[in-house]
Amino acid sequence: MSLVRRAAGSLVHRVYAAIRAVGAITPASPAGYRFGRLGQGVSIAFPVGAIFGERWIEIGDHTLIGERVSLSCGMGPGVDLGPGSILRIGGSCSIGRGSHIVAHQSIDIGEHVFTGPYVYITDQNHVYDDPETPIGRQWPRNNPVSIGAGSWLGTGAIILPGTRIGRQCVVAGGAVVRGEFPDHSVIAGVPAKLIRSYSPELGWHAPGLTPLDRQATA
Fold this sequence. Notes:
The chain is of the alpha/beta class. The protein has a single domain (2-217), classed as Hexapeptide repeat proteins (UDP N-Acetylglucosamine Acyltransferase, domain 1). Helices cover 13% and strands 31% of the residues. It is built from two helices and 24 strands. The strands form five sheets. The protein has a seven-stranded parallel β-sheet, with no helix packed on it. The protein has a six-stranded parallel β-sheet with strand order 3-6-9-12-17-20, with no helix packed on it. A hairpin with a 2-residue loop joins strand 22 and strand 23. The protein is globular, with a radius of gyration of 21 Å. The relative contact order is 0.09.
């Protein structure tokens, strides 16, 4: 019986591996042709998440998208969002499984950006201007998002509309990020704040530290 179970288990794993390989979206697959651009070597892992608005999505060369990642442009399928792309992911990125990237106006993710699983990035949020109208029925507001090249977003990070993250930044797991952050920032907390910066004179340091402060503590 154990031999039968091992053989059956091995067969199931081989079949599932084959299904995953066939089900992945690549530039050569039929689903890949629906995208505005899928660069060479791109793979969107199977099982895929919710994907719509593909013609407004561009993904650069050799980027890997994990399992169950949702990529969407607009409120739903079949909406005309204009001539240009809305969601742009650079080359050599890795987007962790279960993440959601929801674009309505403009989301730019630079090259070599890596994320942990279950990251949420959106350029649209609900408003609560009218205190008597249900929030879900009030017209949402858009604000573009950009994430600089070489950055890392930890597990469960949330990037809210209007956020601008510079190059080579670290976003801690679980951070809820809104605002503008310069290159070489370490960002953490709810709401997220700048907790470390980098400069050639000081290396990595707490915000507000000066060369004189560094000399005084040396």
